[in-house]
Specification:
Chain A is α+β, with helices and mostly antiparallel strands. Chain A has helices at 14-17, 21-28, 85-92, 102-115, 121-128, 139-154, and strands at 2-5, 8-11, 47-50, 53-56, 69-71. Chain A has a five-stranded mixed β-sheet, with helices on one face. In chain A, helix 3 (85-92) packs antiparallel against helix 6 (139-154) and helix 4 (102-115) packs across helix 6 (139-154). Chain B has three domains: 25-123 and 187-265, Aldehyde Oxidoreductase, domain 3 (Alpha-Beta Complex), CATH 3.90.1170; 281-450 and 603-753, Aldehyde Oxidoreductase, domain 4; 456-595, Aldehyde Oxidoreductase, domain 4 (2-Layer Sandwich). In chain B, 26% of the residues lie in helices and 24% in strands. The interface between A and B is large, with 59 and 58 residues.
Chain lengths: 155, 758
């Protein structure tokens, strides 16, 4: 089987296919932006996008996402390191503190804005409800998503 | 230059939003081994023997370690040396680690851990803090002689006289729960035995110097032979001191004995099982007032469940004692506080540190008293609150800073429209499904450690020949943005661009031991040290160049990357001055030390100048309670805190929101549900942390009364924001339902929400 991760096609070995997606990303590809926070799908720090939809990668085996396109936090900025407007908005809004939830938060927000480029604050709350943050009280995360929305609308 | 005033620049933000930030578990080293802890299922037992042979024979296992393998001391602690690196004589709580398996892979270590056999004789367990005080109680630590970890007292005035002149006396009992810090990153340590003989320790811990003491004691080596290197930390909230340090000590032990890099990454279950919690309190509170609303007397008995080991229970309960009357000046006070051992999970430092429990008590009972007296609760607060020059219940005169209690109360009162909305509260009556309430609470808080301990902090400014600057400070980045705050202070003081400043990630081998980044002391202590170092450096530079700027050294100003002489006639680029200093054999280098002003304390009577300055805060919340389900929905929350001076506004308000969110969880949701000494809610799918839909839109109002005691004028924010949300919510629930709650978390039954009314 194959998997596309951040635009690069990867051949999956039989052993890799049996791994949890989080372990494949972190161990085999050294994509450590997705974090391990609870391993039961409750915290969302392991969130990645599978075909543009948020998935908790601790709950999925690699073979469950065969042939899919995976986006991790490492794949969001431009090749030259220029931040995606959503990433910039997270900085500008003060949405980053300890940063452990940040990759997952940015990715669920990205998925939301791809499908709904003008969400209300209540819709943003609903979208990030599955991702825990202990530092920010979510207030500035929601601000950041609102700030970035105009970019998606223009696309 | 990064646009900081308006936007949230942080020195670590780029790495964190791109996934490039390497946290401890993201590290890999060649030849690295993996370690996992082994627990027993006992809560209290005599440990007879740990059988490791079968585990050691498992595939990939290199060694199974127990207390016998500790070359230094197996016992350590910051106050009482009762923590065990590995359980030895007894198992004292469900999170005690009996052994550790080290293997080539984590999977192999996990498999083998199940094969460690623990031989133990179960003992009856002590599970109630009040029972721990009885003379015939089971002893958790036999050598200690009793279960009393510590006592504290306040004796002020004449308590009997105080109640004799009181016309209303209220007596209430309050209880609070065990809660989890729930930092998003569980504990991790990676240790590298270096060829120079130094053990290099990295890990998810918030106190490098405390960690170094734990590691050095365990290994039996000098402090200088251990280097603890700071890593990006996925949250701490007070929770990554002792038990996180022990994770590092065990990992270092394996690295030392096996002479290979070792990683130990905790699962969430292990983290919750083993790490220390916020102390549950039982508080017996008696308040006497005159009919006109003067609080005449307070008598209270505070019993804190310290769990199986001391940790910092004496310090946590000391703050509770000093602040046992909240921000009210009371003439006659009699307070007795006990921290006790039980076989419950260990408790220790957590954001707020003994104040969230007491504020719940005080800010609840004051509203009950007001209702009994027929006075508005705000009025009762105003009559008794501390003001400029007030004397606290420990005899401290508040005259060295601006006492802004009334200012922050007024601000919140106006901002949320309290008076009008109070008139709209349901008090248990109403036609709709939802009952409406508004509530507020306020507090004052002693800044930094106070009489808990020695309080000073170092900063080193090391300017390089090209004018770039390395800044090293003795406080630790826990995620709150302390490195950014320190850099901002330096840029401001030296008048240089932020982007030439490079914050040196902390190492215990380069900066003097500056204590813990706790007690909301990071900005005041670390920032104070940075400011003093900068002032020393400026004077050093100015002395060399004042003559050519035609002025005295004291008259040289550092602005916009220039040294500017008197009357702005002459100037010299900062970088040029630095370059020439090296030619003059002068290092542009300074060590700044900020020593906290002296405090005093008489432990016998609980009197003294407990803290060198104080902060003031007030929070209000609006909510509805569903009549049928009892479900609480927060509608709005406003907080106002006096921070002295704002260093980084974006991060500052982030502290407000995060603290309010955590306080909401404390009030309504969070409970580890410890039953028979075992945590029932052992992972995040069972432990209810506040999520985005649980929280309202929040508003932060910053008050700045520059504090001359602080070299930067800045004080504290981390903990104050977290310590009054629970009583604000409890008061709002009372105004909605007419039912008063004495226990956290607040559970509202359908009956509660309809039986109120006045």
């Amino acid at each position: 089987m194959k998997l596309t991760v951040n635009g690069i096609q990867r051949d999956i070995t039989r052993a890799q296919a049996e791994k949890r997606l989080i372990d494949y990303l972190r161990e085999d590809l050294d994509l450590t932006g997705a974090k391990i926070g609870c391993e039961v799908g409750a915290c969302g720090t392991c969130t990645v996008l599978v075909n543009d939809r948020p998935v908790k990668s601790c709950l999925k085996r690699v073979n469950e996402v065969a042939d899919a396109s995976i986006l991790t936090i490492e794949g969001l900025a431009a090749q030259d390191g220029t931040l995606h407007p959503l990433q910039q908005a997270f900085i500008d809004a003060g949405a980053v503190q300890c940063g452990f939830c940040t990759p997952g938060m940015i990715l669920v927000a990205h998925a939301l804005l791809l499908s709904n480029p003008a969400p209300t604050r209540a819709e943003i709350r609903r979208a990030i409800h599955g991702n825990l943050c202990r530092c920010t009280g979510y207030q500035q995360i929601i601000d950041a998503v609102e700030m970035a929305a105009s970019f998606y609308g223009k696309k | 230059m990064p646009d900081v005033k308006e936007k949230g620049w942080r020195n670590d933000a780029y790495a964190k939003v791109t996934g490039k930030a390497k946290y401890s578990d993201d590290l890999k080293f060649v030849n690295m081994l993996h370690a996992v802890p082994v627990y027993s299922d006992y809560v209290h037992a005599k440990l007879v023997q740990v059988h490791t042979a079968e585990a050691e024979a498992s595939p990939g296992v290199v060694k199974v370690l127990t207390s016998r393998d500790v070359p230094g001391s197996n016992h350590f602690g910051q106050i009482i040396r009762d923590f065990r690196i590995f359980a030895d004589d007894k198992i004292r709580y469900h999170g005690d680690v009996v052994a550790m398996v080290v293997a080539e892979t984590r999977a192999q270590a996990l498999q083998a851990a199940a094969r460690v056999r623990i031989e133990a004789e179960p003992l009856p367990a002590l599970l109630d803090a009040e029972e721990a005080l009885r003379p015939d109680a089971i002893l958790v630590h036999e050598n200690h002689g009793s279960n009393i970890i510590n006592t504290h007292h306040v004796r002020r005035g004449d308590i009997e006289k105080g109640f004799a002149v009181s016309e209303l006396i209220l007596e209430r009992v309050y209880e609070t729960q065990f809660i989890e810090h729930a930092y998003m990153e569980p504990e991790v340590s990676v240790c590298l035995p270096r060829p120079d003989g130094v053990m290099e320790v990295r890990g998810s811990m918030q106190h490098p110097f405390s960690t170094r003491r734990f590691v050095a004691t365990c290994l039996g080596v000098p402090l200088a032979a251990v280097e603890v290197v700071g890593m990006p930390l996925g949250g701490g909230f007070g929770g990554k001191d002792d038990t996180a340090a022990i994770v590092c000590a065990r990992t270092a032990l394996a690295a030392r004995l096996l002479n290979r890099p070792v990683k130990m990454a905790y699962s969430r279950e292990w983290s919750i099982r083993e790490s220390y919690k916020r102390h549950p309190y039982r508080v017996y509170y008696k308040m006497g007032l005159t009919r006109t609303g003067e609080i005449r007397a307070v008598q209270c008995k505070i019993i804190a469940d310290g769990g199986a080991y001391c940790s910092v229970t004496p310090w946590v309960t000391w703050r509770s004692t000093v602040q046992c009357c909240g921000p009210y000046a009371v003439e006659h006070v009699h307070c007795d506080t006990w921290g006790v051992y039980t076989n419950n999970v260990v408790t220790g430092a957590m954001r707020g540190f003994g104040s969230p429990q007491m504020n719940f008590v005080i800010e609840s009972i004051i509203e009950e008293a007001a209702a009994e007296l027929g006075l508005p609760a705000i009025e009762l607060r105003r009559r008794n609150m501390v003001r400029q020059g007030s004397v606290t219940i420990t005899g401290q005169k508040l005259d060295n800073h601006t006492v802004s209690m009334e200012q922050v109360l007024d601000t919140v009162f106006q901002e949320i429209g309290y008076e009008k909305k109070l008139g709209c509260c349901s008090h248990g009556q109403g036609d709709g499904e939802e009952l409406y309430g508004i509530g507020l609470a306020m507090s004052y808080r002693g800044v930094s450690l106070g009489a808990e301990g020695v309080d000073f902090c170092a900063a080193i400014i090391n300017v390089q020949a090209d004018g770039s600057v390395i800044l090293d400070v003795g406080v630790h980045e826990n995620g709150q943005g302390s490195e950014t705050a320190m850099s901002l202070i330096l840029a401001q003081e030296l008048g240089i661009d932020l982007d030439v400043i490079h914050y040196k990630r902390s190492s215990t081998s380069t900066i003097p031991d500056s204590g813990t980044t706790v007690a909301s002391r990071g900005t005041i202590m670390g920032g104070g040290a940075v400011a003093l170092a900068a002032r020393e450096l400026k004077l050093k530079i100015a002395k060399l160049f004042a003559a050519e700027l035609d002025c005295a050294p004291e008259e040289v100003r550092f602005v916009a990357n220039q040294l500017i002489g008197k009357d702005e006639k002459k100037s010299l680029p900062f970088a040029e001055a630095i370059r020439r200093m090296f030619q003059m054999q002068q290092f542009p280098y300074a060590l700044g030390v900020y020593r906290a002003p002296q405090v005093t304390w008489d432990e016998e009577i609980g009197q003294g100048n407990a803290y060198f300055t104080w902060v003031y805060g007030c929070q209000a919340v609006e909510l509805t309670v569903n009549k049928t389900t009892g479900k609480v929905k927060l509608l709005n929350a406003v907080a106002c805190h006096d921070v002295g001076k704002a260093i980084n506004n974006t991060m500052l308000v982030g502290q407000f929101f995060g603290g309010m969110a955590m306080g909401t969880g404390y009030a309504l949701h969070e409970d580890l549900n410890v039953v028979d000494g075992k945590i029932s809610h052992g992972n995040l799918n069972r432990y209810h942390l506040p999520r985005a839909l649980d929280l309202p839109e929040m508003k932060a109002v910053v008050v700045e009364n520059y504090d001359a005691v602080s070299p930067t004028g800045a004080k504290s924010i981390g903990e104050p924001t977290n310590e009054i949300m629970a009583p604000a919510i409890a008061n709002a629930i009372f105004h909605a339902t007419g039912v008063r709650h004495y226990k956290l978390p607040i559970k509202i039954t359908a009956q509660d929400s309809t039986k109120g009314g006045r």
